[in-house]
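Table S2 (continued). Query chain:
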Amino acid sequence: MTEALDTRFTQFLLESQALKFGSFTLKSGRQSPYFINAGAFDDGARIATLGEFYAEKIQQEIAAGNLAARIDTVFGPAYKGIPLAVATTIAMQHRFNASIGYTFDRKEKKDHGDGGTMVGKPLEDGMNVLLVDDVMTAGTAVREVVPKLKAQANVNIVGLVLSVDRMERTKDSDLSAVQDVQREFGFPVFAIANVKEIFAAGHQLIGEHGQPYVTDEIAKAAEEYLTQYGA
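Corresponding output:
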């Protein structure tokens, strides 16, 4: 039987050294015992594999009726979302024969050539747009991107797919960032895996030294962190 998506994705994170354990200061100022670094997907094989995980998650949610079957373009916010959008659309074509555009924004408006703030498939009224991003902690990127999209055209944002949901409360509520974004914008948010799934899988997966990737000590630190900050 094929291993669950979250287990296979956890193994990929660990083997790519995208998931690290230690003490890390997050943008929020919190001290986290774990960190997911999308910058570790730094070669063709890794980014291609990552795109396949996104495509598989998208197809799962479409099949389950949780995501619109028609997706016109995948939007990745600059900068980390750019390779995610491209890799996802390539994987959707190769694995599921789904021809989907990709679009991303510029950090600064281009004042020469074709100009504008967007690159890739042009946004038009009525298009179904799927957002992709790496890890959501506070939802800041989404709040910056949605107004940009709506300023371009009257598009339908059908959902957001993340690599990892950290499942942390926002500073202003008891909701997680994912729950808060869903409440505020009304579209669903999906993650290939959440931190609880990752730590459960990592406790079962054996590393090169014959020990679980997630030791009891690491699991305890993660549990204490989520007790303090988890939603």
